[in-house]
Backbone:
């Protein structure tokens, strides 16, 4: 690495000053139409409705024009090559998953550093390199075909895998014979959000009917069916196991008990709460039995014994508990009661419960017997996040990963017989972690709620308000923001930046009550929590408003769009990514209706409609002093369709009269984010860092 050159610093500071925006930018013209919707007698204009048509020539030309303006701005920013080079240096380390054992073989993924996609291996032991069983980098030349599903049969003979093209949520399933490493003729289509559950000489999965060409990326997904596919047969011959045409909006995923006796079907109509059905596979033509026939609470299948199905649930337990339901009597019993910390994950196997809790958003792991008696606590190396604590089918060893903001993923092996915990594979990154620190602080939100926040920074950072800071959050759908490793954070903090991650309400860090406190008519708690996190950083001199960047993706993109409209004075740069920006129409696209348990819909009642409209980013734009904004989306995003970001960017550009840039970056052949090739990620992050450093006038220091 190069040493810092003081002349270079002066040069870039000068360049930043020269290229600073001094007049309002010229954006592509976005036409307005006279579309008006009526909500409970009130007229609401939707002048950019035409941008919802992702198949139209007009929309394609608009996208092209916007990207031209954005690229001309971003490409002219200084130190892009140096930023890209440093990102590659930081990310160029070996990344390996914890192994899983099927039959007598171990399976894991590994990325040598700069590969677009991780490669999957089959090995004879848990530490050797093994042989390649699937290389997703060979699925396409440009890396836009990504692996979405990887499922090995219990006997280790077959690999079922799913691929997604150009970032879409649509999957195609294939099957590979692991003895020959050749694919069978099996090819399954029109699959979304489906598990692949092996049984005998085939597997269970879920699919939708084939959509029309114009609805592939935006049409509402309904009438999901649970099917069984026998290897070597065409998809047209698959057997329908379960369908419910009376309730076409319900979706399904499958699992199977350890002895292959019962198929377990989880039925969902939203992102929280599910019903549970079982089917006796030992009896021909057996009926599907509904053992949990409501959608109010979560019931997550975690294992079984000879008599009971074990479920992790938040029914009458905000922090979750484990229950058993008897197969024959359907009688429910409590296996492990609710604890003071929220349960993140539980696995039942060989007479023991392996439970991961969240204590102030970081992991604790405890082991219990099936009577709820605590047997062991797994000693973790520090404050961080443990993942993948899943037993193997025929081994006493459990493999898991541990990571934190300042530690890449380390792989551990825990022996369930001896209670021995060992570091199996150590991951090294060329970075001086000793110079940095992670702290956890707590602040009060507007209504007095106590909210935690992680802060990562150099140990010698002067807390005088001069340091740049980046605050990132999510706040929704019971998703917990736990300590995680990112080379993007490393680049930011080595440049003198402070990284902050608050655990907003709407997440699951403190159980179901914490989640519900940020939903429906309490959604604004999420925005208030975030705004108070920003104020905490400013008031305690970690940074100042002129040095603060805020970002979030998906539901977090909604968060950024909302808080920037509410209090733009708190931020200098805003990065809303793949955000849900039109809160009156989100439920009309693909699987958007699933989000209604968190948001409500504009069709529920007048009160809910007005509440959504009061914070919907598309509907609350006004001419005020906005920060510099870079909206990001993908043209193949069929989860949060890009029309959300299109309409938001068009509204900002046509309303805001100030001088700061309001740009939209539209990635081609990209979706909601999952499976994006590394090359595209580096390009995107180069744009993001270049934009931030320029807008906050913080010279990039060459290392």
Residues:
């Amino acid at each position: 690495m190069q040493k810092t050159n003081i002349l270079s610093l002066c040069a870039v500071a000068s360049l930043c000053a020269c290229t600073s925006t001094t007049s309002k930018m010229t954006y592509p013209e976005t036409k307005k139409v006279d579309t008006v919707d009526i909500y409970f007698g009130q007229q609401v204009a939707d002048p950019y409705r035409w941008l919802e048509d992702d198949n139209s020539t007009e929309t394609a030309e608009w996208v092209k024009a916007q990207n031209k303006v954005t690229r001309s701005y971003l490409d002219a920013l200084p130190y892009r090559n140096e930023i890209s080079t440093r990102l590659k240096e930081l990310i160029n380390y070996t990344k390996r998953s914890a192994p899983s054992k099927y039959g007598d073989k171990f399976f894991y993924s590994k990325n040598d550093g700069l590969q677009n996609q991780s490669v999957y291996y089959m090995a004879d032991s848990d530490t050797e390199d093994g042989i390649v069983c699937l290389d997703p980098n060979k699925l396409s030349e440009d890396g836009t075909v990504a692996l979405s599903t990887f499922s090995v049969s219990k006997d280790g003979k077959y690999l079922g895998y799913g691929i997604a093209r150009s970032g879409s949520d649509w999957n195609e399933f294939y099957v590979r014979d692991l003895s020959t490493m050749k694919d069978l003729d099996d090819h399954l289509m029109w699959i979304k959000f489906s598990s692949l559950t092996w049984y005998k000489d085939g597997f269970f999965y879920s699919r939708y009917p084939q959509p029309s060409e114009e609805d592939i990326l935006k049409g509402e997904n309904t009438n999901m069916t649970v099917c069984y596919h026998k290897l070597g047969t065409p998809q047209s011959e698959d057997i329908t196991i379960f369908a419910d045409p009376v309730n076409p909006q319900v979706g399904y995923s499958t699992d199977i008990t350890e002895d292959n006796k019962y198929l377990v079907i989880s039925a969902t109509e939203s992102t929280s709460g599910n019903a549970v059905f079982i089917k006796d596979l030992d009896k021909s033509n057996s009926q599907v039995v509904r053992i949990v026939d409501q959608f109010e609470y979560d019931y997550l299948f975690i294992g079984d014994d000879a008599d009971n199905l074990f479920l992790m649930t938040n029914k009458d337990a905000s922090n979750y508990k484990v229950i058993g339901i008897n197969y024959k009597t359907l009688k429910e019993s409590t296996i492990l009661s609710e604890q003071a910390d929220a349960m993140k994950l539980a696995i039942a196997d060989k007479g023991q419960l392996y439970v991961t809790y969240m204590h102030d958003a970081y992991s604790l792991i405890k082991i219990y017997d099936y009577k709820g008696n605590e047997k062991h606590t797994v000693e973790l190396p520090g404050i961080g996040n443990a993942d993948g604590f899943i037993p193997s089918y025929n081994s006493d060893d459990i493999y898991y990963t541990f990571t934190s903001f300042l530690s890449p993923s380390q792989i551990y092996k825990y022996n369930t017989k001896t209670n021995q915990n060992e570091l199996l594979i150590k991951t090294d990154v060329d970075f001086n972690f000793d110079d940095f620190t992670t702290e956890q602080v707590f602040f009060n939100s507007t209504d007095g709620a106590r909210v935690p926040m992680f802060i990562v920074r150099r140990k010698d950072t002067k807390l005088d308000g001069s340091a740049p800071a980046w605050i990132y959050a999510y706040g929704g759908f019971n998703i917990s923001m736990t300590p995680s490793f990112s080379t993007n954070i490393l680049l930011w903090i080595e440049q003198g930046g402070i990284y902050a991650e608050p655990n907003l309400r709407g997440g699951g860090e403190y159980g179901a009550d914490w989640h519900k406190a940020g939903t429906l008519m309490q959604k604004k708690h999420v925005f208030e929590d975030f705004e108070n996190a920003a104020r905490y950083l400013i008031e305690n001199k970690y940074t100042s408003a002129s040095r603060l960047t805020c970002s979030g993706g998906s539901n977090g993109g909604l968060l950024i769009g909302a808080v920037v409209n509410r209090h733009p004075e708190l931020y200098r740069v805003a990065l809303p990514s793949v955000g849900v920006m039109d809160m009156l129409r989100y439920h009309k696209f693909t699987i958007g209706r699933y989000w209604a348990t968190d948001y409500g819909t504009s069709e529920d009642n007048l009160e809910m409609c007005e509440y959504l409209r009061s914070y919907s980013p598309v509907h609350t734009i006004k001419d005020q002093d906005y920060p510099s904004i870079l909206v990001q989306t993908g043209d193949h995003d069929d989860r949060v369709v890009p029309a959300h970001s299109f309409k938001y960017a068009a509204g900002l550009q046509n309303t805001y009269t100030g001088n700061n840039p309001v740009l939209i970056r539209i990635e081609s052949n990209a979706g909601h984010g999952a499976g994006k090739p590394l090359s595209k990620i580096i390009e995107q992050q180069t744009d993001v860092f270049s934009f931030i450093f320029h807008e906050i006038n913080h010279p990039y220091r060459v290392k």
Remarks:
- The two ends are 6 Å apart (CA to CA).
- The CA atoms of residues 248 and 258 lie 30 Å apart.
